[in-house]
User: Fold HTH-type transcriptional regulator DmlR from Achromobacter anxifer.
Amino acid sequence: MTKTRRLEDLWSHIHCLGVLADTGSYTAAARRLQISKASVSQRIVELEQAAGVPLVRRTTRSVGLTEAGQSLVDQTATAFLRIEEGFSAVRNLSEGPRGVLSVTAPVALGRQIIAPLIPGFLKEFPDVRIQLDLSDHLASLATEGFDLAIRHVAGVPDTHVASVICETRSVLAGAPEYLSANGTPRTPMDLAGHNCLHYPRRSGGATWSFESRAGDKRVAVPVRGSFTANNSEVLREVAAGGLGIALLPDFSANQALRSGELVEVLPGWLVVGDYAERLYAVRPYTPRVPLTVSSFVSYLRQAIPASAGLGGPGKDAS
Assistant:
């Protein structure tokens, strides 16, 4: 005979069900709750045993809630949100940021810009632990359990809140020995005679678009080259090796430009429509911003332009 569980013993189980409903997978729920996947599964089983009805509908490809499970989540979600907000408000009265902050960022940007800044942040806020996931996959923050995404994109979904960290720009660059041997382009059309190293796009053939700094001319140039890569660090290194001219985001190019390893090409023209022009911090919408999130975003907005030589701090956007 199954022992009847006291309702107060099941609060964490009900919360676990709500997180599972929000994330859509046991793995993502375990990551958000900072427990093992097996623990999530065990809590759901115990909750179903206590409730006496199935709460989760499991298939080989997905996890969903039964009608009873969804009803339980709907009726308790507001209460758990109020508990979270109330506790955060009380804790913030006397404490600084603390707890685990789960962050996702693109590989090149994360390695070159975000990772070097993390030691300084953690020294300033020793009660915070950061979990950094580097992936060029555009993660769903809600379903994959991330608190924050750092993204170099043209725009963000209306369902999320975004803060502009700084402005960025695209840079054409080549190694001095390549330009000495092959000539330096004077106009965008001169690129047709050069080995152009580019980031592959789904649209097929590569076309680089330019606008004069005066804004009175716009040119689109089909380009060809012997090498493509879906990582700007790799493109930078191959260009530095003297193979050709690469189109890079400034956060990948700046250090090599400062050292003379690369030289900027066509500085009188603006590259448009290839890489994004802003760096964003993106978070799921919540009525109250967690202090760890707001502190980390503020830190990045001050530190990134200063350390990487990118554009100045931006404004909040939603």
